[in-house]
Amino acid sequence: MSFRFLLRDAWKAWHRHSGWMAWNLFLAFIPLALSVWLFRRSSGSRNLLWWVAFIVFMAFLPNAPYLLTDIIHLIDAVRRDYSVWVITLVLIPQHLSVILFGFEAYVISLINLGYYLQKQGMGKFTLPAELITHALCAVGIYLGRFLRFNSWDLVTQPEDLAQTIVDDLTAKRPLFVMFVTFIVLTVLYWVMKQITLGLILKMRDRKVLHEAGGEN
User: Fold this and answer.
1) How do residues 139-148 score in pLDDT, each as one tens digit?
2) Are 94 and 103 in contact (CB under 8 A)?
3) Closest CA to 110 of 154, 69, 58
């Protein structure tokens, strides 16, 4: 295969998936942005606007870990008639980076929530809040991936959504899928949280050393 055709196929492969990836990342970063406003502000007041924003935050939060399920698109792309170079240099880095960024948005959102709980003197509730959030997101991921509901369906079709949740929560297969999703979220979140907090501490230490060196 000539370099020209390789570039053409690489561009086609990248362009084929970039649209939905950008949209899914946008949805994943909505709760991240809201978490900064909700949990990192100097003011800790919880007025009506705060609660509305919190509900929106919880509604959109499953969109961040939902990107983990987009691995199926990578598997489908690998099965297509692409060269090994396009798969290795374009498709795998493209899909994995989007999945990583989406899940990192989830991790940082929950770190911000934990920071807020600590600031409010409710640090002991951080772990229960994380586990409850994982469980809710597992339900949201199932509804999005298998039943094709969206976050805004909470407003546009709440009755259908509620009925579906009631029906599926009483069925064995959906419960098993959501349980497995909960376990995966819990484990991956714990790993990524340790890595993220470690990087944050490392950057803070570098900043302190740099400022100390500047003063000297």
Assistant:
1) 889 888 877 7
2) no
3) 58
